[in-house]
């Protein structure tokens, strides 16, 4: 009895230790590594900026987005999820910029396809076919093909 209690206590301690390790598993990158990733990301996606100030601002945004990506990926690892986030072409945009440029509706008027108002020939009576008209409402009674 005592050995099973000790075993359960050890298992609980091991579980707590693994959860604590998962919380600290967020990747911490050096400034040099982050800068290198930014340069590689710019080259991959063909990004250029009009000034050094704009490039530094975009670097700061990408660095912040990278921190969020690392946090989400660490949470996914802790939850044993296979989903992972990564740097995309939009990684240098703030949430507001992304929402404005990429989530807005495109105002294109909808034009429905032109359709004939009549039924297809398959469901219309041929000129030589018997068609019965009912006395209540003038509806056409459809007949099965012979």
Structure description:
It is a single chain. Helix content is 49%, strand content 3%. It contains four helices and two strands; from the N terminus they run H-H-H-H-E-E. Strands 1-2 form a two-stranded antiparallel sheet. Strand 1 and strand 2 form a beta hairpin.
List descriptors:
3% strand; 4 helices; two-stranded antiparallel sheet; 146 residues; single chain; mainly alpha
What does the secondary structure layout of this molecule look like, with pairings?
Blueprint: H1 2-23, H2 31-45, H3 52-78, H4 95-102, E1 132-133, E2 140-141
Antiparallel strand pairs: 1-2
Shape descriptor reads: flat
Q: Please indicate the percent range of residues in DSSP E strands (runs of 2 or more).
A: under 5%
* Cross-sheet strand order for the largest sheet: 1-2
Question: What is the string of helix and strand elements?
Answer: HHHHEE
Short description:
By secondary structure, the chain is an all-alpha fold. The protein has helices at residues 2-23, 31-45, 52-78, 95-102; strands at residues 132-133, 140-141.
